[in-house]
Amino acid sequence: MDASPDCSLVIPIHEPRFPLLPGLLSSIDEQSTDAGVEVIVVNDGGDSTKLDSLVDVADYDTEINIERLGTNEGASSARNKGLELASGEIVLFVDSDCKLTENFIQSHYELNTQSDAPGVVGGSQFVNQDTTTAEVLEEVGYWSLPFRLPETRIPASWGPTLNLSIKADRLEQTRFDATFPSRGGGEDVDFCWQITNKEGEQSFLKSDTPTVKHPSWGIKSGLTRFFRWGRAEAMLMEKYPEQRQFTGVPIPLLLGGSIILGLGMLLAGGSLPIVLTVLFAICCLQVAEFAGKMNQDLTAPALRDPRFSNYEIPTQLYPILYGFEITWQFGVLYHQITTGQIRNCVYRINYFPEVES
Question: Which residues contact 216 (CB under 8 A, 6 or more apart)?
Fold first, then answer.
């Protein structure tokens, strides 16, 4: 390509996902668009021979460049490398396990050229919807919001990098913070807030037209992600204290405190039945309070997302909801304890500002 492209697609990939790349590249090659397009695939320290055996760039009409990081540095560093190499007026971020739907590139291109917004946040369609985690993401308003921002009335101050485009001239020196979890979590929020928090800047434009198909996660993968996202939230609270909101003492600390209290009562001569009764009562109160907070938290977007206007969480999902939420809280506490920032344990990040319906 002689002239600079209109759009640069940046795709970070690590070795376990190599087999997914041909499907994504094929969906890119099948796009119909007026825009000049370059694709930048950044191999995050994986075996180049393995990737070459799966992907021959000559098989595609779209210009595809594959770069390799010398070591496995994580998704943020891979995207930063892509930003260094991107020459398009619009930079699109797509995850390697996604596939683009029809008119994806054209939609991002038109929406960016017709708007003064810094970029565009698109939506996603989850496939493999036969997993419990997929059902949770589908049914629970709060956790589905990052993937369904175009369907809400919430200003898009950020969007996940599975479907996000940004005008190159609004990036300036903005880069992904590689100190966030290497396999992803929080770095996309931070990256976007670096842009939208600038004085005079506006939110991203939202559109449900550019859509990607994204595979769902199993329970094990879901728990891993929630722990990682919890760690990332603790980091975001340090970087953006103005986005914190008070939520009370988290369940892991309350349970830990109850155990210490019980041991103290036993050492002080308390009888075991009385101690167990007190601990059981405390745990019941904690669970009840936790359930109330979770229900309020998870149903809060109901008025802002038309899909949840008459919204009730399916009863059978509550056990996995509690599991995911507590795993998230353990992730928050793990980072706070290991970094000595425990003072933030009573806060959560307000990812989505309140909007009057």
Answer: 126, 127, 128, 129, 131, 133, 134, 137
In a domain, 224, yes or no: no
**Domain assignment of residue 222, yes or no:** no
Say what the pLDDT of residue 331 is: 92
Tell which of 151, 185, 217 closes a domain.
Answer: 217
Any idea what the CATH number is for the domain that residue 45 is in? 3.90.550.10
| Mean pLDDT within 191-215 | 94
Report the alpha-carbon distance of residue 354 to residue 357 in Å, rounded: 9
Averaged pLDDT for residues 56-64: 94
Is 226 inside any structural domain?
no
The pLDDT of 47-75, averaged and rounded, is: 95
Give the domain range for residue 258. 241-349
CB of 206 closer than 8 Å to CB of 120: yes
Q: Are residue 265 and residue 136 in the same domain, yes or no?
A: no
Tokens found for residue 297: 């938290």
List 213's β-bridge partners, or say none: 99, 125
Span 265-324, pLDDT tens digits: 778 887 888 777 877 777 777 667 666 666 666 666 554 566 555 556 677 777 777 788
The reply to whether 213 and 260 lie within a common domain is no
Confidence of residue 178 (pLDDT cuts 50, 70, 90): very high
| Contact call for residues 232 and 187 (beta carbons, < 8 A) | yes
pTM for this entry? 0.88
Can you tell me which residue has the tokens 């995207």? 79
The reply to whether 179 falls in a domain is: yes
Which of 62-66, 255-259, 290-294 shows the lowest mean pLDDT across its residues?
A: 290-294
d(C-alpha 115, C-alpha 41), whole Å = 28
Into how many domains does the chain fold?
Answer: 2
Q: Are residues 208 and 289 in the same domain?
A: no
The pairing of strands 119-127 and 164-167 is: antiparallel
In sequence order, the 6+-apart residues with CB closer than 8 A to the CB of 137 are: 126, 143, 144, 147, 216
Instruction: Supply the pLDDT for residue 47.
Output: 97
The count of other CB atoms within 10 Å of the CB of residue 328 is: 23
- Tell me which residue of 240, 251, 249, 252 sits closest to 351, measured CA to CA: 240
